[in-house]
Amino acid sequence: MLKIGLTGSIGCGKSSLSNILKKHNIPIIDADIKGREIYEDKELLKAIEDAFGSSVIDEDGTLNRKNLGKIVFSDDNKLEKLNSLTHPAIRKMINDDLDKYEKRGKKMAVIDAALLIEAGFVSMLDTVVVVTCSEDVQLQRVILRDNCSEDDAMGRIKSQMPQEEKVKYAEFVVDNSGTLNQLEEKAEELIRKLEEKIEK
User: Fold this and answer.
1) How confident is the model over 70-88, as pLDDT tens digits?
2) Which distant-in-sequence residues (6+ apart) come within 8 Å of 4 by Cβ?
């Protein structure tokens, strides 16, 4: 089974492409959803509490995201520590899903992850698809989507790995600077190329 990574910077339309692939009955594993589900694991919560203190766990035993966010987003070392706890757990859940789809006889499965490269998931994949768009389009989309100022939008874009850096990891690059219809056409072309890759 072909294991495909799908990523792209904020506002480039990774989720739009992911939704189109889903309509073509290609299994999608959403790493962001897995990233939320891992916090249901009591052992992981205990490790996070040990690392960051009791303020990150609410009285009902669930994660206090706000307090955890305040701690890790202002300190790179602490963010790295959190990632060292969460990334292996996310990776295990993704691998379990990949095994499940393989047993069902699926030809391919897509791991949809904003931080695919940063989280070190590339090593578990056969190929990587990066969705890109022009900087102007990206900026406008982020402003519209997040209802924020141009400065805020630029800040969010700049806080991520640059598009040109992500592209270095890609076998397939899909430019989504145009309309949704154009993206659908490009998605069909991408699926054809992926199917050819399987047949080789």
Assistant:
1) 999 888 899 999 999 998 9
2) 108, 109, 110, 111, 125, 126, 127, 128, 129, 194
